[in-house]
Amino acid sequence: MPTVIVRHLSVETHLALKARAARDGRSVVAEIRAILDDAVRTQPDVGRQMSTPDSATDVG
């Protein structure tokens, strides 16, 4: 499974993620994964590109 590293996250954002994860009964990593999954699923064009193995590119 691919790995994504997010650097320079603000303290406020990290605390908000921790609070949201606790509210949802998940770890912070699971919460971030759920947020990202939801974000790409709400954009039909992006979701379709994700299902195509040849479309994988290194964006950053």
Using brief descriptors, characterize the structure shown.
60 residues, 58% helix
The low-pLDDT segments are none
General shape: globular
> Termini, distance in Å?
17 Å
Count of helix runs = 3
Order of helices and strands: HHH
- What do the pLDDT scores average to? 84
Structural class: mainly alpha
Amount of beta strand: under 5%
**Rg to the nearest angstrom?**
14 Å
**Helix coverage percent:** 55-70%
Beta-strand segment tally: 0
Please give the oligomerization state of what you see: single chain
Give the helices and strands, then pairings.
Layout: H1 11-24, H2 28-41, H3 44-50
Helix pairs in contact: 1-2
Describe this entry's structure for a reader.
Helix 1 packs across helix 2. The protein contains three helices and no strands. The model has no long low-confidence stretch (mean pLDDT 84). The chain has helices at 11-24, 28-41, 44-50.
